[in-house]
Amino acid sequence: MSPEAIRHLVRALERHRRWCRTNGLTVPTELDDVVAHVVSCQRLPQRDSAAGSPEHGDVEQLLDYDDVGKLIKKSCRTVSRLVALGELRTVGRGSGQRIPLSEVQAYIARRLEADAS
């Protein structure tokens, strides 16, 4: 499945969730898990170490969703949506998911570049 198709699917699920809530219907709690799974199964290839990730042996700082939200001045839920859309890469699984600081910096750079255009 192409990244464009994944983004479309994730957006459709988000709209469906909003529609359910607006119309008083129960939203399955597993919906976020389904979205995250679809995105994680179709991740883009990982970057090589020459592209800015830490050198072998270096430890990269990992941030939780709250910390990322504070850095980009967004809510924890918005950070979760960015992860589901593939805008931010995570490491770990389940409640242990963290976002590398380099991912946050790259996201900020992309947003600044898009805003400048």
Give the structure's gist in a few sentences.
The protein has a two-stranded antiparallel ribbon. Mean pLDDT is 76; it is low at 43-53. It is 55% helix and 3% strand.
What key phrases describe this protein's structure?
two-stranded antiparallel ribbon, 2 domains, mainly alpha, 117 residues, 2 strands
SSE order in H/E notation? HHEHHEH
Q: Largest sheet, order of strands side by side?
A: 1-2
Number of structural domains: 2
User: In terms of per-residue confidence, which ranges show pLDDT below 50 for 5 or more consecutive residues?
Assistant: 43-53
The first-to-last residue Cα distance is: 29 Å
Apparent shape:
globular
Question: What is the beta-strand fraction?
Answer: under 5%
What about the largest sheet?
2 strands, antiparallel
Which structural category do the helix and sheet elements fall into?
A: mainly alpha
Count of runs of 4 or more consecutive helical residues? 5
Whole-number radius of gyration? Answer: 15 Å
Specify the helix fraction band. Answer: 40-55%
**Arithmetic mean of pLDDT:** 76
Number of strands: 2
Description:
- This protein has a two-stranded antiparallel sheet with strand order 1-2.
- Residues 43-53 have low confidence and may be disordered.
- The chain has helices spanning 3-22, 31-41, 65-72, 76-84, 101-116; strands at residues 62-63, 99-100.
- Helices cover 55% and strands 3% of the residues.
- It starts with a helix and ends with a helix.
- The longest helix has 20 residues, at 3-22.
- The chain has two domains: 1-45; 60-117.
- It has 117 residues and is mainly alpha-helical.
- Helix 1 (3-22) packs antiparallel against helix 2.
- The radius of gyration is 15 Å and the shape is globular.
